[in-house]
Write a structure and sequence with these properties.
The chain has 551 residues and is mainly α. It has a three-stranded antiparallel sheet. It has a two-stranded parallel ribbon with strand order 1-2. The chain has a two-stranded antiparallel sheet with strand order 5-6. It has helices at residues 24-39, 60-71, 94-106, 117-129, 145-153, 201-211, 226-237, 262-274, 279-286, 290-298, 305-315, 324-329, 334-342, 357-363, 378-391, 394-408, 417-426, 433-440, 454-462, 466-478, 485-499, 503-515, 523-530, 532-550; strands spanning 11-14, 43-46, 110-113, 159-162, 170-174, 178-182, 191-193, 216-220, 243-247, 250-251, 374-375. Strand 1, helix 1 (24-39) and strand 2 form a beta-alpha-beta unit. Helix 9 packs across helix 11 (305-315), helix 20 packs antiparallel against helix 24 (532-550) and helix 21 packs across helix 23. The longest helix has 19 residues, at 532-550. The relative contact order is 0.08. The chain is built from 24 helices and eleven strands. It binds one RNA strand of 76 nucleotides through helix 4, helix 6, strand 11, helix 15 and helix 21.
RNA sequence: GGCCCCAUCGUCUAGAGGCCUAGGACACCGGGUUUUCAACCCGGCGACAGGGGUUCGAGUCCCCUUGGGGCUACCA
């Protein structure tokens, strides 16, 4: 029963609105659609839904595309590369929407309205007070062209609504949720064209999906009830009905939908928890006025993301990663995110978890998407990242690490490929690229600019005989003529034996002297990487610097 | 409030009526390894929300309760 028609090509899409960075939920939606298209040998489209002129931000579309590329989610048609059914930006498709809206009006399936925002708000309040649904009162007679002309001349807002005349239940088929039917009496005639002339989301999405030949739509559960409206529109316009799959929502640790509001929220909480903070300095760090900061702390409005990030950095608080770039900057790998995201609400059914991109594509299927909401578990994400740092081919790790170092402006970026590769290798077991960077940074700062951790200095050098041990280590190292990790190991081990102490007694003072901290990559590699001159210099510096405190 | 969706360890989940004494992964706890932090190895703790049905038999099907989530915009 294998009937390959050949003409039935799957088409999926991701249709973000350019209001900010690509966030984790959007990335998951994009990934599922991409996975389905790749699995079935179909096409995956990218479309920018910028019909809300007030919310659009100019760089967002570019940023979203950059983030998708970083994740390795590529598209076959899109705003930047075009395609047979373009343009792929809704603001460039106004004339198309106008035609269909006019068609609905001509067929008496839609009608003009002239309500002001205040009037609509009153209706909403009244409905709420009377505990009934807010159903728009459809006029018996639809306004004709003359009336519209007059309203426009008077400066009234002009919108268009779809007349919902169906009385039988509206039934949608959902691939993950089955049959969901709803009584049209629950539905209100909704706006399909706004007073600024732009179509609403509902109108634009239905038209574009039809014209672009989209066959499968995977999206969040928040669109489940919209689907009935979309089906009404599809019927009114004589369109095909695509296959829908509504995935569960990803919720955050604090409950509720995982949203970009999470970061400003956490920042506010941190500021309040700290009590006294220099607000002027913080406002300055974030590039906002003290007044703006004050409004943020009191009210609901939040400054934009770069300002939030800058203030968090200033205060040294770690905000939960929400946007894809946040994860990049925290040292996560794209492979980790793709794998982890795929497993949020889907699984291959055979217990596999760590899976390559190809394995994910191979195993992906709509029937295995589950229905219940899932919580975004950062600890498990980190465990995946640890795994991927170990698993990835050296070239790939190197590429990711270099990109990360350049993004955060780390001094470690000065290392050449060979050194960087070695740094990754000796840090195997690290959970994020950030950890590798932090553990290696000391090697790339000038010898006299090492930051000594006071607790480490006290514990390892000042207390006990750490100081004397360090001197002995310095003397011993100075005699070494062959510099390899093995030679260093042999030397230090025999020194430990001679002194009748464990290797730790030798290694820790040395570590603090050359790194400033008790935490570093394995000591023999660390010495080797720094080179003998630097090591001896730092030992010397350390002895001099803390000599007085010792006495 | 109305409408809709969902419900297995702390978390992500396996489970499509007997294979379940409910399996795996992360987290957690205990132990081991060890030059630090990790990583690694071994072991352990730990769940079918509650109540009714249906059935020879229910985590699996139905109903109710409870709990969670979504929508209810000239946002998408």
């Amino acid at each position: 029963m294998t009937q390959k028609t050949g003409i039935f090509m799957i088409v999926t899409r991701f249709a973000p609105s350019p209001t900010g960075y690509l966030h984790i939920g959007g990335a998951r939606t994009a990934l599922f659609n991409w996975l389905l298209a790749r699995k079935r040998g179909g096409k995956f489209l990218l479309r920018i839904e910028d019909t809300d002129t007030k919310r659009n931000t100019p760089t967002a579309a570019q940023q979203v595309m950059d983030d998708m590329r970083w994740l390795g989610i590529d598209w076959d048609e899109g705003p930047d590369i075009g395609g047979p059914n373009g343009p792929y930006k809704q603001s460039d498709r106004r004339d198309i929407y106008d035609r269909y809206i006019q068609q609905l009006i001509d067929e008496q399936k839609a009608y003009y309205c002239f309500d002001t925002p205040e009037e609509l708000a009153d209706m909403r309040v009244a409905a709420e007070k009377e505990k009934r649904n807010n159903i728009y009162p459809r006029p018996d007679m639809f306004p004709d062209a003359a009336v519209v002309e007059k309203a426009r001349a008077e400066g009234k807002p002009v919108t268009v609504r779809l007349a919902i005349t169906q009385t039988e239940p509206i039934v949608i088929q959902d691939e993950v949720r089955g049959t969901i039917s709803i009584d049209p009496a629950e539905l209100s005639d909704f706006i399909i064209q706004k007073s600024d002339g732009f179509p609403t989301y509902h109108m634009a999405v239905v038209i574009d999906d039809e014209l672009m030949g989209v066959t499968h739509i995977i999206r969040g559960q928040e669109h489940l009830l919209n689907t009935h409206n979309h089906q009404l529109l599809q019927k009114a316009l004589g369109f095909r009905i695509p296959i829908y799959a509504h995935m569960s929502v990803t919720v955050s640790e604090s409950g509720g939908k995982l949203s970009k509001r999470e970061r400003p929220k956490m920042l506010k909480k941190a500021i309040k928890a700290m009590g006294k903070v220099d607000k002027d300095a913080m406002a300055k760090a974030g590039g906002v006025t003290p007044e703006e900061l004050e409004t943020f702390l009191k009210g609901k409005t939040a400054p934009d993301m770069p300002a939030v990030d800058a203030m968090a950095a200033y205060m040294g608080v770690h905000l939960p990663e929400i946007n894809i770039v946040d994860f990049f900057r925290s040292g996560y790998l794209p492979e980790t995110l793709v794998n982890f995201l795929a497993l949020l609400g889907w699984n291959p059914g055979d217990g596999r978890e760590i899976m390559t991109r190809d394995e994910l594509i191979e195993a992906f299927d709509l029937s295995r998407i589950n229905k219940s909401n899932s919580l975004f578990d950062r600890q498990k994400l980190t465990a995946f990242n640890t795994e991927y740092i170990k698993l990835l081919p050296p070239e790939t790790r190197l590429r990711h690490f270099r990109a990360y170092l350049e993004e955060i402006g780390s001094p470690v970026a000065a290392a050449d490929d060979e050194l960087l590769g070695r740094i990754i290798r000796i840090n195997e077991g690290a959970r994020t690229l950030e950890q590798i960077e932090q553990k290696t940074r000391f090697a790339f700062v000038p010898d006299d600019e090492i930051e000594y951790d006071s607790k480490a200095v006290k514990k390892v050098l000042l207390k006990g005989d750490g100081f004397a041990m360090l001197r002995a280590v310095g003397d011993a190292l100075a005699t070494l003529d062959e510099l390899t990790p093995e030679a260093i190991e042999t030397l230090l081990r025999s020194l430990a034996e001679e002194k009748q102490v464990g290797l730790g007694k030798i290694a820790q003072p040395l570590r603090v002297a050359i790194c400033g901290n008790t935490v570093s990559p394995p000591i023999f590699d660390t010495v080797d990487i720094l080179g003998m001159n630097t090591v001896l210099k730092r030992i010397e510096n350390t002895l001099t610097k803390f000599q007085q405190e010792k006495d």
